[in-house]
Specification:
The structure holds two protein chains of two kinds.
Chain A (H helix, E strand, L loop, with lengths): L5 H7 L2 E3 L6 E4 L2 E4 L5 H10 L9 E4 L16 H17 L2 E3 L9 H8 L7 E4 L13 E4 L2 H10 L1 E4 L3 E8 L8 H12 L7 E6 L1 H4 L3 H9 L8 E3 L4 H7 L8 H11 L12 E6 L6 E3 L7 E3 L13 H14 L14 E4 L7 H11 L9 E4 L4 H9 L2 H8 L2 E2 L20 E4 L14 E4 L2 H10 L5 H5 L1
Parallel strand pairs in A: 3-4, 3-6, 4-5, 6-7, 9-10, 9-12, 10-11, 15-16, 15-18, 16-17, 18-19
Antiparallel strand pairs in A: 1-2, 2-8, 13-14
Chain B lengths: L5 E9 L6 H4 L19 H4 L22 E4 L11 H9 L3 E4 L4 H9 L3 E4 L2 H13 L4 E5 L4 E3 L5 E3 L4 H9 L3 H6 L2 H9 L11
Parallel strand pairs in B: 1-2, 2-3, 3-4
Antiparallel strand pairs in B: 1-5, 5-6, 6-7
């Protein structure tokens, strides 16, 4: 048999129907649902008199527009309230499990999928959110989809997809001290560009990837879409199996044995071919800070804001000029001289327990810089509870951070946590687009320790010196 | 879905790469539970100031682009968030076709679901179109899906590639759900063979 990649194996195992010139119709093992991209899909079902084919393979939570202030306080925005109520009604009407605002399992959809064991190796997962690639960290094939496709999955439990090309991103070597999985993915995107992965599913391989924790792998796969990738995946290994074991939806007993035997067949066969391969040297990874308005526009913290006049291509030059104008940055400014107003530690990229631990380690015994407003938003109620058991919340609040309820929060500017016009933020989230965190807000993407250090210093600092 | 066969319209040149869906429609406008009501918010920050007053120097405010239905833009158009609201907003504003050197995957799928044609042409050719639209008033393009061509009024004809199934659905305005449901037996057969270890959820 021809050697196959893990991507080919999972894809082939999910083909319900294949016909010439048509996209493959793929079975969806788990459909994750949230309040923002689904009301129109449920409405479409109603109008067509269709039902949800597999409520038992559909799972909902509230994350995008929920306030992260104490749950005892009401959702004040009437339009958000209506959207939340719509998902509650739809889940009730169609018999779908919802971990709502009162649930101890509520959280960002991409945090709770792995956390609850809903994400397992070899599964095909879909969700109406572009960061669905996150689940690939456990060896699942996971696609972000639009609302019409959400309706399609609800009605048929399948997704028609044209087979993307495959791309291997191989990372070798030890990550330098002071760098994190966030810096690694920022470095990969810096290397391939924001459109570099268009039309491809990316498998991350190599010794560096193998050496990452599961939470670190989740961070890497999470930002695959920021490099244009259709999905990102990491082959499961013993670490993966240990992570999944014992979680609420993980198989048990004989079913576990069956699953494990199958999962062990998933890794890419020796000699399997990818359409494209990119090599990344881990030694090139540094603590990165984005200076622009897309996630590829980053520099090591020891670097300077680039000078557009040094760029010969006119389109590239204009793009840098536009980014610097929006970010109110002068060419040549040392990154470490950029002062910040806000700090956000959270999002589906960096709100897991390891992220919070790494940030807390930097913060312990120090105070947030005068004039800086800093918040920590755990990715789920379970992460929050675990962090509180370790007293991380005390470390943050003693330092002057806000410690908030779980949600997408300030990653995307559609709930009360937003930047004001002109405010500058060190953020552990995934997108620094114009207006992403609020109209006129200026976002710099960094790792959790870098964000924590910026909160204390009031500007970006080299985390490698912080530790010394 | 409204079928797409052929469309002629005024070109609006949006000369930037990596136009993200947050730029097409900011998240604060995504709280509606309907598919409509987004057209007025399309490219909001390019069209209005912080107080909501129209920007006089916005390209969208220029008389020569009023009523434009063909958008020409740089590579990686539609990157970022999966929000289909971006496609709804563009369509509701009046765009029928977008021409760019490349499109983000999820956006391209969303556009096709809404009768909005995404046309991929080489970067140099798109650059020429951007420059022509910036200088020649009333510059129009005709996009013919059956022929897979883009033509101007001056004898220039560009052929583009499109996935045959997407083309078929767009030409006939087909609903993919209806097509898939015809394969219900295949789905049922597949379901019967799924391994037992896969997770299941109860309401």
């Amino acid at each position: 048999m021809k050697p196959r990649t893990i991507i080919d194996k999972i894809w082939d195992a999910h083909v319900v129907r294949r016909a010439p010139e048509q996209p493959d119709v793929l079975f969806v093992d788990m459909h994750l649902v949230h309040e923002v991209t689904t009301p129109q899909a449920f409405e479409g079902l109603r109008l067509a008199g269709r039902r949800v084919r597999r409520p038992d393979l559909t799972f909902a939570t509230l994350d995008h527009n929920v306030p992260t202030w104490p749950r005892s306080q009401p959702v004040t925005d009437p339009i958000s309230r209506r959207q939340i109520a719509a998902l509650e009604d739809n889940c009730r009407a169609f018999g779908i499990r919802l971990e709502g605002l009162e649930s101890r399992r509520q959280g960002i959809v991409h945090i709770i999928g792995p956390e609850l064991g809903l994400t397992q190796p070899g599964m095909l997962i879909a969700c109406g959110d572009s960061h669905t690639g996150t689940h690939g960290a456990l060896g699942a094939l996971a696609f972000g989809i639009g609302t019409t496709e959400v309706e399609h999955v609800l009605a048929t439990q399948t997704l028609p997809l044209r087979r993307p090309k495959t791309m291997e991103v191989r990372v070798e070597g030890a990550l330098p001290p002071g760098t994190t999985p966030k810096d690694l993915i920022l470095g990969i995107i810096r290397q391939i560009g924001v459109g570099g992965g268009i039309g491809h599913i990316i498998e991350y391989t190599g010794s560096t990837i193998r050496g990452l924790s599961i939470e670190g792998r989740l961070t890497v796969c999470n930002m695959t879409v920021e490099g244009g990738g259709r999905a990102g995946i990491i082959a499961p290994d013993d670490q993966t199996f240990t992570y999944v074991a014992g979680r609420p939806y993980a198989p048990q007993g004989r079913l576990w044995d069956e699953a494990l035997a199958y999962w062990q067949t998933l890794p890419t066969d020796p000699g399997a071919a990818y359409d494209r391969r990119v090599d990344v040297d881990a030694a090139t990874i540094a603590p990165f800070v984005t200076w622009g308005t897309n996630p590829a526009q980053s520099e090591p913290v020891t670097g300077r804001v680039p000078d557009p006049s040094a760029v010969s291509d006119p389109a590239a030059r204009r793009a840098i000029e536009r980014a610097l104008a929006y970010m109110a940055l002068r060419p040549g400014t040392p990154i470490q001289e950029i002062a910040i107003d806000r700090v956000f530690i959270g999002s589906c990229t960096n709100s897991r327990l390891e992220d919070l631990r790494a940030a807390a380690q930097v913060v312990a015994g120090r105070r947030v810089h005068a004039g800086v407003r800093a918040m920590v938003v755990p990715g789920s109620q379970q992460v929050k509870a675990a962090a509180e058991r370790e007293r991380l919340d005390r470390i943050f609040t003693d330092a002057g951070f806000e410690w908030r309820e779980a949600g997408c929060s300030m990653c995307l500017g559609m709930n009360p946590d937003i930047l004001g016009p002109g405010e500058r933020c060190a953020s552990t989230s995934n997108r620094n687009f114009e207006g992403r965190q609020g109209p006129g807000g200026r976002t710099h993407l960094v790792s959790p320790p870098m964000a924590a250090a910026a909160a204390i210093a009031g500007r970006f600092v080299d985390i490698r010196e912080w530790r010394a | 879905m409204e079928p797409f066969t052929e469309h002629t319209g005024v070109v609006l040149p949006l000369d930037r790469a990596d136009v993200d869906t947050d730029l097409i429609i900011p998240a604060r406008f995504l709280k509606r539970i309907e598919r409509t009501g987004y057209g007025d918010m399309v490219f909001y920050t390019l069209r209005f100031d912080a107080g909501g007053t129209p920007l006089a120097d916005s390209i969208f405010a220029k008389p020569q682009y009023r009523g434009a239905t063909v958008l020409v833009a740089g590579p990686n158009f539609g990157c970022g968030s999966s929000r289909e609201h971006a496609a709804w907003a563009l369509r509701e504003y009046g765009f029928r076709a977008i021409i760019a050197p490349s499109f983000a995957n999820i956006f391209a799928a969303n556009a096709a679901q809404n009768g909005l044609l995404t046309v991929v042409l080489p970067e140099e050719r798109v650059r020429q179109m951007l420059e022509t639209a910036a200088t020649r008033e009333g510059y129009q393009l005709t996009v013919n899906l059956e022929q897979q061509t883009v033509t101007d009024g001056f004898g220039r004809r560009d052929r583009f590639e499109i996935d045959p199934f997407t083309k078929h659905c767009l030409l006939h305005g087909l609903d993919a759900i209806g097509l898939t449901l015809r394969a219900s037996d295949d789905i049922a057969r597949f379901e019967a063979s799924r391994p037992g270890w896969m997770p299941r959820v109860t309401a």
